[in-house]
Design a protein that fits this description.
Helix content: 25-40%
Largest sheet: 4 strands, antiparallel
Shape: globular
CATH architecture: Alpha-Beta Complex
Oligomer: single chain
Number of helices: 3
CATH topology: Cyclic Phosphodiesterase, Chain: A
CATH superfamily: Cyclic phosphodiesterase
Strand order of the largest sheet: 3-1-9-10
Radius of gyration: 17 Å
Number of domains: 1
């Protein structure tokens, strides 16, 4: 199975983010856009694992959760990672100091199992789509984002899979931040 660690969202936050995603979609010529139910904030992508590795990854999640507490962060702005003429649009978050600690703890624990630490800075973002080509008159910076609060109460170990041609992200193991 193909797995990653993520923060999932309440239905109202998913609705809000999806509304903003649709503004980007309506102003794009092409692209693969994130399905509403797949909206999340990736903390660490792992990749393909077997059952034993999955059990170890669950244990890592338990340790990381025991070292952290729930917190809030806020949506910030729409941004883009450029890939030539194609783009990866995303919405960022702010007030994420506790998220940085959480990700750092996760990286530290995973390194004890032999997983390489990320060598680039962690930029928390919620991906809207991939291979997106904007309409020529569209400026993604014009998409206004309210200062919505995201309650971070849990972390999920998610599976990425394809079913009937659709990409599905499914939480396989969730632990609660207290």
């Amino acid at each position: 199975m193909r797995v990653f660690y993520a923060i999932t969202f309440t239905e109202d936050i998913k609705d809000y983010i999806y509304e903003k995603l649709n503004i980007v979609r309506e102003n794009s010529m092409s692209g693969n856009f994130t399905r509403r139910n797949n909206l999340h904030l990736t903390m660490k992508f792992i990749g393909d694992v077997n059952y034993k590795q999955f059990e170890d990854l669950k244990h890592v999640l338990d340790i990381v959760v025991s070292k952290n507490e729930n917190f809030t962060m806020n949506l910030s702005n729409v941004g883009v990672f450029k890939r030539g003429v194609k783009n990866i649009p995303w919405i960022g978050v702010k007030n994420y100091k506790k998220l940085q600690k959480l990700v750092g703890d996760l990286e530290d624990e995973l390194s004890t199992l032999g997983y390489a630490k990320e060598n680039r800075p962690y930029i928390p973002h919620i991906t809207f789509g991939r291979n997106v080509v904007f309409d020529s008159n569209f400026d993604y910076e014009d998409v206004k984002i309210e200062n919505k609060v995201i309650d971070v109460n849990s972390i999920a170990l998610m599976e990425s899979k394809r079913e009937n041609g659709l990409l599905i992200y499914e939480p396989l193991y969730i632990n609660i931040l207290e």
